[in-house]
């Protein structure tokens, strides 16, 4: 095969494997998907219409393939060809190593305008991705090869005209800066949360010191037997192992407030009756197992309910 035909065939091969063509070329997509590594046998390429029109055989395509080595590679067996750069079928983002982040573009520029600027100063553009609905002068641009990324960084950071000064970096570098920023914001958030927690703890401490009573020691106990003597209720409460300092049980009422000596005692009392299903067995204060809807329940009162209780005390 002469050099001119080889050059022409290499150009067709590159067009065949370009993003712009693969998006619409369903048979080529299928050939790529048939192989786990994305290789397409030369025999299958030769069966495509564009190569049949050129009367190019599998050997002809294989012979022209080395001229495409910047973007395509042949397998070890020398029987198939694939892209070096992966093809993304349903893309929502640019490929990082093939892409740049660019800002400083006039807001009235279209995607086609951006492609024209980049193609003129750097080279072929695969895709322009504007990450927001309304263009604000920044976007991501993907090229056909990695070399174009460095060329774009070297070229486009220089003034292109009196009114066009761009800032450009590789997408990899952009993502690194972005992650550093997010990490910094997260650290600041944690610092603020820590300061706020410290402030709240101090406020709570100050509030407790100003209270005329010890908070967290009053327990409301419900589902008591309303017909047993007062001492029977006291004996039942003390089955929890907590010393009851005071309780306001009155016969005929199935609930009462219990004042414990410490907040820990209050927690112990509430936990004892809430983790078990127990009820009063007899007037001697003995307790026994009960159905959940009949069992004694207890909770520590707080806030306005607690303040109201203490205000009602003589």
Automatic annotation (TrEMBL):
Statement: the UniProt record of this protein carries the keyword Protease: no
A single BP term in Gene Ontology: RNA processing
All copies of domain HTH La-type RNA-binding, residue ranges: 1-92
Transcription regulation in keyword set: yes
Pfam families, sorted: RRM_1, xRRM
Start and end residues of each RRM domain: 98-173
Subcellular localization: Nucleus
Transmembrane segments: none
Any one annotated GO CC term: ribonucleoprotein complex
Main localization (coarse): nucleus
Residue intervals of the XRRM domain: 212-314
Source organism superkingdom: Eukaryota
PANTHER family for this protein: LA-RELATED PROTEIN 7, LUPUS LA PROTEIN-RELATED
Family affiliation: Belongs to the LARP7 family.
Name of protein: RRM domain-containing protein
Organism expressing this protein natively: Syncephalastrum racemosum
């Amino acid at each position: 095969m002469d050099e001119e035909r080889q050059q022409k065939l290499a150009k067709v091969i590159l067009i065949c494997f370009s993003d712009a063509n693969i998006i619409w070329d369903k048979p080529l997509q299928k050939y790529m998907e048939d192989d786990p590594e994305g290789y397409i046998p030369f025999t299958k390429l030769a069966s495509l219409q564009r190569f049949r029109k050129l009367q190019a055989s599998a050997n002809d395509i294989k012979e022209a393939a080395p001229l495409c080595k910047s973007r395509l590679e042949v397998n070890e067996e020398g029987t198939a060809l694939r892209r070096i750069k992966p093809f993304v079928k349903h893309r929502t983002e640019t490929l990082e190593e093939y892409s740049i982040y660019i800002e400083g573009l006039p807001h009235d520029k279209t995607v086609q305008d951006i492609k024209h600027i980049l193609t003129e100063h750097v080279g072929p553009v695969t895709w322009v991705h504007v990450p927001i609905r309304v263009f604000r002068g920044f976007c991501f641009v993907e090229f056909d090869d990695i070399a174009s990324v460095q060329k774009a960084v070297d070229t486009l950071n220089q003034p292109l005209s009196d009114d066009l000064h761009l800032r450009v970096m590789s997408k990899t570098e952009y993502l690194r800066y972005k992650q550093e920023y997010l990490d910094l914001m997260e650290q600041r958030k944690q610092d603020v949360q820590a300061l706020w927690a410290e402030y709240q703890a101090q406020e709570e401490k100050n509030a407790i010191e100003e209270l005329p009573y010890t908070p967290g020691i009053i327990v409301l106990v419900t589902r008591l037997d309303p017909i047993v003597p007062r001492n029977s209720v006291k004996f039942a409460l003390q089955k929890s192992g907590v010393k009851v300092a005071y309780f306001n049980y009155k016969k005929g009422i199935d609930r009462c407030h219990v004042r414990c000596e410490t907040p820990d005692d209050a927690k112990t009392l509430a936990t004892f009756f809430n983790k078990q299903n127990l009820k009063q067995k007899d007037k001697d204060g003995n307790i026994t197992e009960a159905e959940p809807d009949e069992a004694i329940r207890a909770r520590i009162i707080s806030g306005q309910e607690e303040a109201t209780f203490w205000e009602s005390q003589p």
